[in-house]
From TrEMBL:
The lineage of its organism: Bacteria, Pseudomonadati, Pseudomonadota, Betaproteobacteria, Burkholderiales. Zinc chaperone that directly transfers zinc cofactor to target proteins, thereby activating them. Zinc is transferred from the CXCC motif in the GTPase domain to the zinc binding site in target proteins in a process requiring GTP hydrolysis. This is Cobalamin biosynthesis protein CobW. InterPro entries: CobW-likC_sf (IPR036627), CobW-like_C (IPR011629), CobW/HypB/UreG_nucleotide-bd (IPR003495), P-loop_NTPase (IPR027417), Zinc-reg_GTPase_activator (IPR051316). Residues 215-246 are annotated as: Disordered.
Amino acid sequence: MALIPTTILTGFLGSGKTTLLNRVLKEAHGQRIAVIENEFGEENIDNEILVREEGEQIVQMSNGCICCTIRDDLRSTLVDLATQRRNGQLTFDRVVIETTGVADPGPVIQTFFMDEEVAENFLIDSVITLVDAKHAQQQLTDRQEARRQVGFADQLFLSKTDLISAEEKAALVHRLQHINPRAPIRSVHFGEVPLAEVLDLRGFNLNAKLEVDPQLMDDDHDGHGHDHHDHDHEHGEHCDHPHHHHHDDDVKSFVFRAQRPFDPVKLEDFLGAIVNVYGPRMLRYKGVLDMAGTDRKVIFQGVHQLMGSDLGPAWRDDEVRESKMVFIGIDLPRDILEQGLTQSLVPA
């Protein structure tokens, strides 16, 4: 049976997660979606569409969607849903998990990697983070969990952009791109976003794409990972707004590129050692790699200590065989990473 695609919806308090969810639940989109939410969420789903029986874990909607709360832990709730679906008691095509406004999505994501029963039934489609544009700068400055939620995202949705000026929006986008250059950023209005742009994004899959804002990848002088922090001011000179302090954000990203292939054994040893030490601070990392010994791209990605890799398509003859990696984390030792990665390349 095909794996059940799962979307993880995270975001700051007041960013509009519930508005978006209510729309997903009410809309006649022809998809049967199971929504899992923490009952102790600060903002609950509209009570008029959710009449909860005492002790009833799962509520059926008129449009075929299901809503349920996490009972003991997320794992048991997911396993229970998969079992009921297999037995024909429940029908649903996909799952959306809403995390609480202050939660770190890391443990939620890890459940899908670490637990065999969950991994055999579910697949993360993408992690979507909703950002309240009006209060984001303050929240990003004050709260590490807000910065972490941005770092984990495959897709960032900005809500309430009508409440800020174009300059404020540009400054916010600039800051978000520094924290996470992988995630496309788009404005949404009161949760009015086509469902095709929320579901089936395949942002988490081991696909052969590594989308990083090209502006952040420019100006490579020597094939090493000189990422956007080095030449920030080249495209940042015109930014007069007082947002330059954001370089102090502890969650940031850097990009590593190399034109020589990696030695698979050295790279595995180095990455293994790095996640052992820095895993808790490594939020998301992904790469499309040129690996010695294979003509196919090697796609790898990870969350915290958990890494996975896959053989992608073959390198085309007209393609430059270049490895690209992006690391998003909390105060990661960039010099150690760059040195170790460079030493894991096949000698020139």
